[in-house]
């Protein structure tokens, strides 16, 4: 009987519920009504008659809209009732950068919201207590609106809140004590409002996870002791408030950026010892300007050798010499204006290569201006001192290219007349008086060489640019070779400001992300559009794509493991082998893949286009892939170990909990579950998507197991992004998954992949699941040809299929079912593609032999 029986079986199994990738649903009405009533015309590229889930900025789960991003669309006016307020599954809403003036009353029933972004609109009303309805909210951004009144106490209900941004509104009176409930807060920004009063008691200590606090630009009264108990905070900004006391109490671990400017901090700071547990080398940004600090500048500053920004301007310091900051050579901004300095400018600042802004105005400095490193210098103010002598020629030559300079009210000699009369009248006030133009003919004659000097500088600058361009070309030419760029190590916000190009090496490849500034390359996370991740976050998530985070090196390129901020566990797949698609096409394709959801597919979480690298970001799969599970024993497990003795357990819901994955494979039930789930995934890609998706590279290592040990298929759709070269590659591969039509065709004949190529691959994986043997190069009893397919097909043909069953599968009475499963594999691996069943049919066949739970 065998095969005859099977063909009739197959015909019976020919009914299936068709599934579609996206379908219009009732949420579509609410969204289109909202967009149209808010003034969005279909001319903006929206096709209101297309299914909602295909619209740009709309994210669906099943048939519900869970995410809506309508930022910068010019939406204006009131949000109408019975529109987006009715999207009861909505989790992410971004309406930023529009002209919205008011919210609807049903807006407050969006109880599923996890992230809400309304920033940069014109909403002019108090925030109602209804905000407490959003109990699942993790991120709330209402910045740059016109919200007024108090911040409601009901905010205390937002227990999951991590990000709170209410800055640039007109909120007034005290910060409500309800905020103390929000223990998950990571970032608070209440800056630029009209808040006053003091901070609620225990404010800082209430937020153990708080990293960033900005209260700047309010009228809050407080003192240094308000900040005792900082735990995680690296950023503190209380600029422009009414804080007083000694700044010393504020310096606490692990602060890196401190802005206390424009407050009323006082005290003789030079005489007090700063808390010794504060590590000055972590400090990156310090602004104490416009307070009432007295005494001299503290000597601990010398240890802050990673400091980039230092502003001590306008305090009440006693007369002092230039502070000892010679180790702070990474400074980019130095402002010591009005700090009562006498004596000479510290000579060492001429060796600060990154200095961009130097303000030494309003002091009593004398002597000459040192030879500054002018490479990055853009702002220089030495006005109102007693400096004398010539301005260094290199500096004079740089001035025309600088943003701002001021030499007024000194005793400098300036005889160059390249400057326009206006410049001379504003930037050199009081310095010209002493220029002995008339008195000293030598100085007068220096005019023309200096003029040439400027031209020379211009010529030099141009040739430098050419040289740079040339070098850049050279660099690009080399980068396909194994050349490594040193990844700049930078302590300031370490990964965030590093600039590229970046080069990374694995055992088999070197890949380069040709991006200039890692923070300027966005990472798109489909379901969390409000988290503005950048390539810099990928760098830090993977420790600069460190080999230690490498999970695998697949056909497409290396795969890394990482945690994005917020604890998002991801697998980062770099598609290194070049792509024929443009950035736009690749982005469109990846967005499309991101919308394809099925319980048996590994979800594509997001992507990043870094230079010409396409980087796909997937949910991390906790339990590895089928290839490892079947063929590679976990580390530390002996090959001789008897798997059948491993314990495993199932609960009522068919979920398998916390068992060593090796043990799972001892049941046919589990192996069948993997086969069926994988078949469902392929059937969905082939028949449920339009246009249908051919996986093209299906194999055991494409099947992953998630945290519930559900099988999930990965890498679907990537081949397309790769272009057609891959098909030749597949044909060349000897992996054991290549369908015979690819091996047999004469070279030169077209090799077209069809869904039936995937079906063949599925058959091979099914054989692997049942026999526990690898597709090639394993031990196949009584078989000379080293190939799983020919071996099993031979046995099935002789009706001896059960001899191929993996002896590690325990339990008896299931041999018949496993024999039938082998026959399904037999059909799938038919030589002629036409004879292979479709994946829909295979799902039906597998369901019919599903083992029932009986033990
Ligand atoms: C809009 O979508 C509908 C349904 O998908 C389609 O038939 C129609 O051609 C689309 N119109 C445009 C202008 O793209
Ligand atoms: C903000 O609200 C105030 C008072 O309601 C109003 O005078 C002002 O024009 C509003 N500003 C904007 C930009 O809407
Ligand atoms: C502090 O906040 C104010 C207002 O938002 C801003 O202008 C300033 O740049 C901030 N300081 C730092 C160090 O970010
Ligand atoms: C120093 O700071 C730690 C915690 O940051 C605190 O426990 C300790 O009391 C402080 N010591 C002084 C002298 O301020
Ligand atoms: C400060 O931090 C740096 C780098 O994190 C570390 O090397 C150094 O030992 C620390 N210093 C103190 C005094 O803790
Ligand atoms: C230096 O600091 C003072 C006080 O904050 C400020 O007014 C001035 O603009 C700063 N100078 C520069 C060049 O930024
Ligand atoms: C300015 O410096 C000169 C010496 O260079 C000195 O004689 C003079 O007293 C100084 N003037 C002031 C106001 O400090
Ligand atoms: C200006 O500098 C010259 C020397 O360069 C000095 O002779 C003169 O006294 C200085 N004038 C003032 C007002 O400091
Ligand atoms: C330079 O400083 C002087 C004195 O502070 C001031 O009057 C003048 O406007 C400044 N010029 C420029 C260009 O900033």
Automatic annotation (TrEMBL):
Cell location: Membrane
GO biological process: defense response; response to other organism
Entry's transmembrane regions: 456-478
PROSITE patterns: LRR (PS51450), PROTEIN_KINASE_DOM (PS50011)
Membrane topology: Single-pass type I membrane protein
Signal sequence annotation: 1-21
GO cellular component, one term: membrane
Domain Protein kinase: 545-853
Keyword list, A-Z: ATP-binding, Glycoprotein, Kinase, Leucine-rich repeat, Membrane, Nucleotide-binding, Phosphoprotein, Receptor, Repeat, Signal, Transferase, Transmembrane, Transmembrane helix
Keyword Transmembrane helix: yes
Alphabetized Pfam families for the sequence: LRR_1, LRR_8, PK_Tyr_Ser-Thr
GO molecular function terms listed in the Swiss-Prot or TrEMBL record: ATP binding; protein kinase activity
Protein name: LRR receptor-like serine/threonine-protein kinase
Source species of the chain: Actinidia chinensis var. chinensis (Chinese soft-hair kiwi)
């Amino acid at each position: 009987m065998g095969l005859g029986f099977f063909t009739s079986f197959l015909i019976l199994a020919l009914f299936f519920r068709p599934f579609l990738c996206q379908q219009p649903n009732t949420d579509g009405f609410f969204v289109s009504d909202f967009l149209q009533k808010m003034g969005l015309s279909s001319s903006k590229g929206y096709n209101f008659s297309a299914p909602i889930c295909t619209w740009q900025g709309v994210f669906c789960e099943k048939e519900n809209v869970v995410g809506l991003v309508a930022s910068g669309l010019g939406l204006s006016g009131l949000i109408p009732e019975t529109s987006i307020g009715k999207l009861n599954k909505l989790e992410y809403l971004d309406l930023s950068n529009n002209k919205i003036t008011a919210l609807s009353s049903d807006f407050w029933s969006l109880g599923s919201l996890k992230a809400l972004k309304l920033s940069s609109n014109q909403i002019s009303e108090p925030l109602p207590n209804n905000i407490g309805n959003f109990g699942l909210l993790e991120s709330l951004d209402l910045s740059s609106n016109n919200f007024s009144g108090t911040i409601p106490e009901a905010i205390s209900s937002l227990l999951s809140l991590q990000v709170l941004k209410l800055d640039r509104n007109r909120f007034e009176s005290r910060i409500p004590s309800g905020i103390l409930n929000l223990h998950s807060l990571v970032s608070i920004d209440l800056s630029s409002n009209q808040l006053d009063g003091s901070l609620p008691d225990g404010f800082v200590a209430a937020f153990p996870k708080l990293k960033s606090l900005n209260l700047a630009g309010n009228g809050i009264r407080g003192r240094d002791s308000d900040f005792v108990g900082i735990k995680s905070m690296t950023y503190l900004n209380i600029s422009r408030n009414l804080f007083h006391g000694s700044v010393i109490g504020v310096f606490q671990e692990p602060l890196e950026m401190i802005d206390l400017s424009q407050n009323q901090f006082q005290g003789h700071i030079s005489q007090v010892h700063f808390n010794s547990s504060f590590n000055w080398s972590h400090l990156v940004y310090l602004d104490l300007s416009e307070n009432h600090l007295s005494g001299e500048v503290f000597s601990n500053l010398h240890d802050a050798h990673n400091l980039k920004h230092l502003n001590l301007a306008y305090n009440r310091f006693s007369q002092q010499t230039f502070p000892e900051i010679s180790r702070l050579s990474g400074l980019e901004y130095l402002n010591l204006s009005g700090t009562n300095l006498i004596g000479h400018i510290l000579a060492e600042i001429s060796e600060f290569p990154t200095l961009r802004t130097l303000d030494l105005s309003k002091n009593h400095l004398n002597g000459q201006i040192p030879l500054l490193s002018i490479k990055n210098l853009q702002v220089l103010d030495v006005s109102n001192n007693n400096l004398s002598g010539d301005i260094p020629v290199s500096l004079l030559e740089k001035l025309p290219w600088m943003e701002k300079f001021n030499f007024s009210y000194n005793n400098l000699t300036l005889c160059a007349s390249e400057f326009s009369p206006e410049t001379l009248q504003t930037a050199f006030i009081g310095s010209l008086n002493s220029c002995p133009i008339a008195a000293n003919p030598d100085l007068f004659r220096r005019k023309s060489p200096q003029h040439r000097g400027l031209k020379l500088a211009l010529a030099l600058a141009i040739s430098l640019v050419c040289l740079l361009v040339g070098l850049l070309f050279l660099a690009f030419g080399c980068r396909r070779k194994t050349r490594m760029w040193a990844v700049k190590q930078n302590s300031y916000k370490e990964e965030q400001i590093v600039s590229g190009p970046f080069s990374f090496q694995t055992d088999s490849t070197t890949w380069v992300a040709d991006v200039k500034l890692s923070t300027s390359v966005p990472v798109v996370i489909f379901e969390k559009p409000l988290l503005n991740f950048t390539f810099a976050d990928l760098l830090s998530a993977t420790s600069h794509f460190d080999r230690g985070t490498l999970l695998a090196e697949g056909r497409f390129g290396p795969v890394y493991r990482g945690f994005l901020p917020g604890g998002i566990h991801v697998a980062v797949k770099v598609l290194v082998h070049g792509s024929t698609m443009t950035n736009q096409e690749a982005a469109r394709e990846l967005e499309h893949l991101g919308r394809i959801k099925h319980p048996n597919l590994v979800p594509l979480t997001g992507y990043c286009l870094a230079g010409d690298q396409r980087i796909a970001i997937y949910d991390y799969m906790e339990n590895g892939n089928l290839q490892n599970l079947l063929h590679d024993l976990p580390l530390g497990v002996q090959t001789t170990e008897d798997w059948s003795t491993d314990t495993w357990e199932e609960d009522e819901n068919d979920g398998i909990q916390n068992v060593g994955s090796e043990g799972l494979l001892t049941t046919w039930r589990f192996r069948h579950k993997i086969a069926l789930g994988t078949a469902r995934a392929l059937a969905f890609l082939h028949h449920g998507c339009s246009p249908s998706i051919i996986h093209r590279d299906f194999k055991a290592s494409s099947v992953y197991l998630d945290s519930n040990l559900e099988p999930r298929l990965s890498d679907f759709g990537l081949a397309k992004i790769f272009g057609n070269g891959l098909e030749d590659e597949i044909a060349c591969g000897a992996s054991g998954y290549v369908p015979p039509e690819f091996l047999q065709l004469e070279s030169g004949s077209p090799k077209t992949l069809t869904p039936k190529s995937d079906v063949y691959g599925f058959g091979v994986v099914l054989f692997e699941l049942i026999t526990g043997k690898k597709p090639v190069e394993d031990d196949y009893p009584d078989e000379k040809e080293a190939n799983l397919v020919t071996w099993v097909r031979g046995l099935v043909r002789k009706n001896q299929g059960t001899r191929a069953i993996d002896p590690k599968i325990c339990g008896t009475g299931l041999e018949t079912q496993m024999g039938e499963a082998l026959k399904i594999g037999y059909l799938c691996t038919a030589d002629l593609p036409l004879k292979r069943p479709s994946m829909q049919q295979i799902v039906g066949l597998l369901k019919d032999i599903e083992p029932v739970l009986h033990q």
